[in-house]
């Protein structure tokens, strides 16, 4: 529960309380306006509590996500055991990289980008339309201020 009492989370809690009370107050204000004869205020009287409910929903979802994120440290031998150095960690991948899902489970964070090898299909010389279109594109690139109708080909 200490994760929910960091300065960032305290700001989120305060923002949630302020937004919910403000939205409910605005809803009550619209009910009083609607009772005074402003018919369009009935729609707003329903809308503001829905906004307040959405704020509570997002706040609750973020709380659950934070509490599920990283498990708190357990007391016992696991705390007193020294952490192994990175060089002595077992390598899991064929390229010598460390296994992303180690003994501690999956680690949150960024992974390496996926590299995809590009395979050349061909130069396209056998397709006359493709050659003409590529010539047109190269002409447009060479003449940036020209309009497509100015193409001499």
What does it look like?
With 153 residues, the chain is mainly α. It has a domain at 2-69. It has four helices and two strands; from the N terminus they run αααββα. The longest helix has 29 residues, at 7-35.
Approximately how much helix is present in the residues? 40-55%
Measured between the Cα atoms of the first and last residue, the distance is 71 Å
- What structural class do you assign from the helix and strand content? mainly alpha
| Amount of beta strand | under 5%
What's the overall geometry? elongated
Order of helices and strands: HHHEEH
Q: Give the number of helices.
A: 4
Mean pLDDT: 79
Biggest β-sheet strands, sense, barrel? 2 strands, antiparallel
Strand order of the largest sheet: 1-2
Number of DSSP strand runs: 2
Instruction: Note poorly predicted spans.
Output: 77-81, 83-91
What is the C-alpha radius of gyration, as a whole number of Å?
31 Å
Keywords: Membrane, Transmembrane, Transmembrane helix
Transmembrane segments: 9-29, 41-60
Region (Disordered): 69-109
Biased composition (Low complexity): 89-108
Which key phrases capture this entry?
single chain; 153 residues; mainly alpha; two-stranded antiparallel ribbon; 4 helices; 2 strands; 50% helix; 3% strand
